[in-house]
């Protein structure tokens, strides 16, 4: 591995080490983390291929509204068409495609994994897979396009995927514990110990775990595609706020990290009082 590859890899290793260190209640198995890293890297190629295909479809759909000057600059029939085209490419072709691949991989690898048993686990899973994806993406770009944007991608793109992973992982964990509480509630109802269903919020958090990273990723890509300093400045400010929020979330969840069973029991007691004790499972 030459020094250029090393520059690309170091930020990814550092961020993975940071998240692994913050997992205080119970460290995740190294094998599972390597599977997530590898899955993220492997999914980069099909995600990029599909993203390119969707972008091409949008380009074809908008071709009647675009002409090119002698210097090759795209000129749209209206600013509205330009913004709509860029928005669809950023949010649908890039953000939705990439984040969908990552989210589905984490969901199917970890949702029934016995090691998914504490509050910080969802963040770890999504971050490791996202970092694997970002690492493969950067290496692909270095080998195909050269090293002109290497430092920018190594120290901005990788942390951006960390951001998407933390946001997705937080809501994914909330979904997990609410689902566990809902399952316990169903068992208590079956046992005749309670009669009313009160815990119904699990699907909302699962949707948020998929939708929020797409929104944030899409906004960033939209600002990058437009190239306007106003868009970039607005996203720069938003990114600072989001990074601060994510590190606050990471620190808070890490500090309060405990078993999902204990958390599910708390949710049950809040919903049903003493009758909602979680000792039925």
Protein model, in words:
- With 281 residues, the protein is mostly helical.
- 77% of the residues lie in helices and 2% in strands.
- The chain contains eight helices and two strands, in the order ααββαααααα.
- The protein has a two-stranded antiparallel sheet with strand order 1-2.
- The longest helix is centred in the middle third of the chain and has 41 residues, at 150-190.
- The relative contact order is 0.14.
Give the secondary structure arrangement, pairings included.
Blueprint: H1 3-22, H2 30-62, E1 66-68, E2 74-76, H3 79-110, H4 121-145, H5 150-190, H6 202-226, H7 229-255, H8 260-272
Antiparallel strand pairs: 1-2
Helix pairs in contact: 1-4, 1-5, 2-3, 2-4, 3-4, 3-6, 4-5, 5-6, 5-7, 5-8, 6-7
List keywords for this structure.
mainly alpha; two-stranded antiparallel ribbon; 281 residues; globular; 8 helices
Short characterization:
By secondary structure, the chain is mainly α.
Q: Work out the count of structural domains.
A: 1
- Report strand %: under 5%
Rg, please?
22 Å
Q: State the helical fraction.
A: over 70%
The major sheet is characterized as: 2 strands, antiparallel
Q: Widest sheet: strand order? A: 1-2
* Unreliably modeled segments: none
Average the pLDDT over all residues and give the rounded result.
86
What gap, in angstroms, lies between the N and C termini? 50 Å
Class from helix and strand fractions: mainly alpha
Reading the helices and strands in chain order gives HHEEHHHHHH
> Tally of extended strands?
2
Number of continuous helical runs: 8
Shape: globular
